[in-house]
Amino acid sequence: MAKLFPTAVLAVILPFTCTDAANAQDPKTVRYTARSVAECFEWMAEPNVSISDRARTALGPDGPFLKIAVPALIEALGDKEAREDRIIVILADHGEHAVPGLLAALRRPDALTRSRVTEALAAIRPRSADVNAALIRSLDDAAPEVRTAAAKGLGKIRHYSSTVVPKLLARVGDSDPYSRAEIVTALGRLARTPGPALTAVVDALKDQNEFVRAAAAQALASVSPPLAKVIAPDVINNLKIAREEYIRQDLARILAKAGLAAAPAVPQLTEMLKSKDTISVGAAAWALGAIGQEAKSAIPRLLDLAKNKDHEARLAAFAALGRIGPAAKEVIPLCTDLLRADAQNYERAIAADTLGGIGPDARSVVPTLVAIALDRKNSGSLRESAAKAVARIDPATAKTEKLEFAHLDIRLGEVSKVVLRPRPKMTAEQSAKIKSLIASLAETNVADVGLSASMNGTAFAPFPDRARFQSGLLTAERRGPSDAFRKLVELGPDALPFLLSSLDDSTPTRIKIQRSPGDFFSVGGSMPEGNPFNSAETKALGLKFAFEDEDDDNVGGYTIKVGDVCFVAIGQIVNRPYAAVQYIPTAIVSINAVSQSHVVRERLRAAWGGPDPAKGLLTSLLTDYATEGVFNGSSLDGWDEGSRYQIEAAVRLLYYFPDDAGPVIATRLKGLDVAAPGGGDKWMLRDVRNRIRTIEFIKAVSWVNAGPVRDALADVARRTDDPAIRRAVAQNK
Q: In whole angstroms, what is the distance from residue 222 CA to residue 234 CA?
């Protein structure tokens, strides 16, 4: 095994061993349980991630070496051969417990140790003021590698920007180009308004060092569109003199965000279309499209590019011509050719988008676009592009053909009219109970549906047997939600306002999603799309907000917060598969950190809040219950989406509003075709006639023990000659 630590480290760790007799006696266990810290370091050096992860577990905060792990890990940072990336991850796992030792290690004479310690401090989450102050002090370290590590860490957390930016500006002229580049990158991340930070990054575009210029261009490529407009003149001037292709690409990306403000750059961007570098051509085309009609002088070159079937950036030219608009109408025949049935779906979609941008001059292609939008054999994205194109070219035809939702696999049927009966006013005692349940979510330690990094699925906590495993690792386990979570979902509309107000609760739970080497790991915030026929939800998703200050670079992983668990609970109440953690095959873990995203929280509150939570929830569930699949004539591909909406809505309607919604469900049951379908695909046709998966629907509501639904189930049992339906009716008796 590779050497990972020097003699000095051995002096720290060798006296400490794990002498658990059971481990020593069981040959199966000893392979996976470290007998000493030294063995942990040997495991850490292994290229096999599954082996190195054992070291992370053993040396982590829940391992057997808690008292000595941190000193040993810090000591190992000084070895040139050390896997510092893995060491830093484990130190990040220890969080605040590792901070005192790391701060002390910053005083060591060895620059390598100080730079790696600085990286480790920057990885700690949450980051304390003491850590941030230490990183700021490290900007003045004599060693450039330490200054570089400090600048990189300071650019990760925006909450301290008012303190950090002046310190970074003071060092923006650092003599070391790598430190200077990292300082510029940090300033670019922290700049959210015009000011000294943004100016410093723009000035760095003219730095004498290519590496610094590249860092500045890359940093500016991520600024918001309003800031891109502000800096557009400087970017254009730099585009005129820049020679490096990769820098020019980033400058073009900035100008794409600036839109019309980048119009003076049209000659330079048009010239970029002649580049032999495909990425440069694509970036230039995108920027020209963003400029719009003021880029019409580039049309001839873009048309030549669109005609070149061998050029990888050909489709970028189509997109640009569509965004330039009617002046580019010469592209219409090329788009018409690209719409042919034997072309790839994504190519046909781009052609449709381009025609939509051309507008009324493309009326001759409207019949073809309508046919594409209505053909259920086409992909949903292609149908959507065609439908939207028709709406832009000929709005009257789009309305006549009812194309607004034609691309969807669902449609809205008749929404049942249900009058909500008066509900008792919530007492102070009930309110206190709900708040107590939310507070106790901090004790959540089970990675159940929506909180697991190894599986995806759907669930409704009051009915554990309704949990559905959709994808994940073979080793994934589901142990059910916590009692507090289950009770909150059971309370439904009563708990909903409290859950919404607690979305920003950053109290950590006991679930930590670890970031494993080799895996793709992201932390962000988004509100997933819901039912397009839910007007409140659609409106909330369309709300615009200023650029959000999100932190990033959760090196060791992410600890689930109470607000994140509330997000999952809200999803189960409102019939949405909201997940704070999502496993995406293969080896991708995505964290939807709603507790850290102001934008997402406000959208969720707009969708599911309001003065009468119960009425709002009832309205939403009735809309879901009326959402039907559109049959393509040959299979249930896509059709199932409508069935799922209905079935899950029915469960919640009966659970939260049994007296109000019971008669609606009962009427539906009595109208079902429950005759045995016979052979072939007749079972499918029966489901299509019933507009729902017949047997699944009956199973989903068979738990009801009284009232009109129970009577309707008894009626189903009497009418059917299908043994599967009889079993479905009887399963929960």
A: 16
Average pLDDT along the chain: 90
CA distances from 394 to 363, 370, 495, 685 (A): 7, 11, 47, 36
DSSP H or E run through 138: helix 129-138
**321 has pLDDT over 50:** yes
Give 464's DSSP letter: G
Delimit the domains of the chain by residue range: 428-614, 626-730
**List of residues 6+ apart from 631 with CB closer than 8 A:** 639, 688
Distance CA 659, CA 307 (A): 64
CB atoms under 10 Å from CB of 313, counted, come to 23
Residue 45: how many other CB atoms lie within 10 Å? 18
To 5 degrees, how large is the angle CA 545–CA 547–CA 553? Answer: 130
Read out DSSP for 102-113? HHHHTT-S-HHH
Measuring CA to CA, which residue among 499, 490, 452, 487 is closest to residue 604? 499
- Collapsing DSSP to helix, strand or coil, 450 comes out as coil
Token pair for 215 = 């860092």
Residues 132-151: b if buried by 16+ CB within 10 A, e if exposed: bebbbebbebebbbbbbbbb
| pLDDT band with cut points at 50, 70 and 90 for residue 174 | very high
How would residue 476 be classed by pLDDT, with cut points 50, 70 and 90? low
Cα separation, 625 vs 664, whole angstroms: 10
What is the tens place of the pLDDT at every residue in 445-456? 888 888 888 888
Cα separation, 704 vs 387, whole angstroms:
43
Q: 309 vs 299, which has greater pLDDT?
A: 299
Preceding amide of 586 cis, omega within 30:
yes
H or E segment at 162? helix 161-170
Pair of tokens at residue 615: 């009425």
The pLDDT of residue 358 is 98
What's the whole-model pTM score? Answer: 0.86
- C-alpha neighbours within 13 Å on the C-beta side of residue 706: 2
Task: For residue 66, give every residue at least 6 positions away whose Cβ sits within 8 Å of its Cβ, in sequence order, or none.
Answer: none
Whether the Cβ atoms of residue 512 and residue 559 lie closer than 8 Å to each other = yes
The span from the CA of 458 to the CA of 488, in Å, is 17
Closest CA to 294 of 324, 273, 249, 254: 324
What does the pLDDT look like over 678-721, one tens digit per residue? Answer: 888 899 999 999 999 999 999 999 999 989 999 999 999 999 99
pLDDT for 680? 85
Alpha carbon 380 to its chain's center: 21
Spatial distance between the Cα atoms of 660 and 648, rounded to a whole number of angstroms: 17
